[in-house]
Amino acid sequence: MPHKVLVVDDAMFMRAMIRDILVNSGAYEVVGEAANGQEAVEQYRSLSPDLVTMDIVMPQMDGIEATREILKQSPKARVVMCSALGQEALVIESIAAGAKDFIVKPFSAEKVLKVLDSVVAG
Amino acid sequence: MDLSKYLELYLSEGREHVSLLRRGLPLEGPVSVDAVTDLFRHAHSLKGMAASMGFELTSRLSHDLEALLDHWRKGAEATPQQRAAALDAVDVLDACMDAVERQSSDGAMAPRVEASVAGLGAASASPEAGLPPAGPTGTEASKAAATVEGPGRPVTGSPPPAPGPRARIKVSIDPSCPLPAARFMVMAERVKAEEPSAVLEPDLQHIVKAGLRSAVFLVPPGPLLKDLALSLRSLPDVADVDLEQASAPPLRSGTEGTLVQSMRVSPEDLDALREQASDLLYHLNQFEAALGPEEKRRHHFWLESERVHLNRLFDRVLSMRLVSFEVLAERLGRTARELSSRLGKAASLTVSGAEERVDRGLLERLLDPLNHLVRNAMDHGLEAPEERRREGKAEGGRLTLDIRRESEALLISFADDGRGIDVEAIRQAAVDRGLFAPHEAALLDHTKLLDLLTAPAFSTRKEVTDVSGRGVGLDVVRSAVESLGGHLEMASEKGRGSRFTLVIPSATTLTRVLVFGWDDEVRYGIPASQIQHIYPLSSAPLVWSGTRRFLQAGEELLPVLEWRAGPVGRDGAGLRLVHPQGDRVLLVSRVYQGERVVIMPWGAPLEMVSEWMGGALLATGEIAYVLDGRVLIRREGD
User: Fold this and answer.
1) Interface test with chain A among B173, B186, B531, by most A beta carbons within 10 Å
2) Domain boundaries in chain B?
3) B413: nearest Cα among B347, B364, B481, B468
4) Do A101 and B204 touch (CB under 8 A)?
5) How far is A60 from chain B (nearest CA, A)?
6) Which residue in A11, A110, B25, B172 is deepest, having the highest Cβ count within 10 Å?
């Protein structure tokens, strides 16, 4: 059965891209999308996905804050951060906050899937 | 033997010893043996170095200072007289360094060295001290020196590896991985989940700092080791995993690294390196601009990662040129002390924020204007002790230097608690001088009057200096600051003191800007640090309330900054600019990208009158006009 993923990004473009990569692989299905951290926390609660892809810089509640919030409520949550180049400090902060891994924009399908596969396996 | 080639090294290392001596000298309170042992070592090293260079005066004074420190080290009480004499000796040693730098000899220092040596002798011979006259410290000294100068202690932040044999798993990261340190961190979390006692060497901080792409996990040997190595190999971005089983003596990577903890590099070499790094960045931009859209898309990843590496290189070189303010603060303290004794005005300089690091070149250019301000304050700003007493102030004047960074600027603020500036006297002088008619002068406000002091024609007049108690050379300070692209802010209250703030834009470093567009073809930018959020207008509507527009961001209504009222469509965005007086939203037609750029200030006078910080060369080869959001908001009401 495909893994259920919640895709969080304030840009619809990015969400669509990730969705395509995930769905085309056949191994994942996107069960929900959120455009900011607040929505992500709410959606996580109602959907309990296997995996979250989380953008870092978002309005209202950023991805790091949302990750903390999600992990507070579900310590086993698997969150993978979506970062842009040059955001190493933020990524490191996210991992310290409990994120499992990260992917870097621009996304390549192969790389994204490798990271997500290793997170669901680990 | 030709000693001149060692001169530079002597100076840089010698100054370091002098500076550590100054910092460590206990001015009051009990004397810690450890601290004095360090000081002793510095005096001792300096003595040896100076002797090797043939600077006998320096060597002699170091020797006598060393003898006094040796005495303290053995538990003798440090009398106030001795402390003063030691401090004086350090000042003179510092001056000896200056003399060597200027004339390659300390010969001219003879009178001051004699006086200082005599001071040390007198302090030591005083009945309360009972110190034997300064003489050769002999074997005692060399023994002590040997113990403290022995093999360098390894200085590492990482915890020592657990005892017992350790296996090493060396992991190398794919060169195309854009965030290697984050990758190591993810890996470390995984390894720790399997083997809690695993240690990453070097530690993460070091990996981040040095941008390393390979590191070693130290783990206890065991049957699971192979599995661990295998699972590491399967992780993203991992290029290579190398397993070394434990051997008898525990291996520690990085042990070799502690032999040489730092190296001296000449400033010129760093300058050249910086120039080359910046050329490389420029070439990459040119190269990218020459590519067609299709090629650009195809090679996007490599171009981007190239840019990341070059930026990192550039950052690293820039950070190697950084020096803390401590050196400068020390120099200013010396100026204050010298003038204090010469003018008979007690004063103390308190420095905060000296740990702030700035480009060496900038620091050098700040020395003169700040020294000038200290002299002014000592000379004119602070009242004589008896006058201060009459005014109900503490006899000793208080000077403060406060250094801090505020978003894109460096703020250096120097204040005294002296008599302050008499602005009415300036007003009168402006009329007397024929610069303003009386009715015009009457309209000048406090700030304008203070500004007059920095006008060259004004401040050099002696009468003004006398009545205002200040002013000599303020034009020099101002122009020095302006040549750095900054400005001088002054505040003063009669009877209470004055404050001068040097506001220096940190434009010499890479700044992250958000690039955006309005309805024209031009690219604009704003420092990313000033932007809190970006709201797409498609999801955050604009609403009118009375005569003002607001952007509705969820529950929040954010006032729109009506600065450039061009049409902004639904593709546009609102940039939320942070400001202490309330955030504002700047509407733009299009947001392009974030980019790290060097902002070049437009020359004066443009930058003084406008909200533009300067221009920046973008990766695309285009120029972006960079706005200062804070100025925009400050001028909102104008």
Assistant:
1) B186
2) 4-148, 167-249, 271-320, 324-499, 510-634
3) B481
4) no
5) 8
6) B25
